[in-house]
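Example 3.2
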Amino acid sequence: MSRNPGKGRDRARAPHDEAPPTKAVRTKAASGTPGSSAPRTNAPPQGPEGSGFTARPNPVRIAGYFGLAVIGALVALAGTLVQAAWFPGGLVIALAGSAGLFYGGRVLTGTQIGALAPAVGWFITVFLLLSGRPEGDYVFGDELGLVLFMVGGTAVAVMCATTSKVPQSATRNGRSGI
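Structure, written as tokens:
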């Protein structure tokens, strides 16, 4: 067996009347000439690709975040109506729906912004519904349920956005989970 694997195969494939290939010596003059096998040395250095906020903006991802914010506004409106209709149970249902949206956005995108985008739409909508009108009235009334809905939803959004990692399924890694 040879100490240098692969050299014997190259010699066996080469025609017998040619000499085996020799190592190319890279010189300063040959490094930038076309047709040479040496790499260019005057090329600008390539930095690593950015990630997170330093990555190049992706229009599809931005549209997805905007869509999550719109869904967050719709969930806030529905949650405000539900919690006002059935106070104790409606509040739980509204907070569960909000939590599902925030966590689902986090899992769907795999980023913390995925939980923050629907939370921003949700928070703005709930804040506008809680703020008074020019006549001094509230849209849904001044009740404890609206305040609990706003505080509870904000707490759930913060919990979903600040989790360290999204849990991975054991079956994706080839493990049975047992």
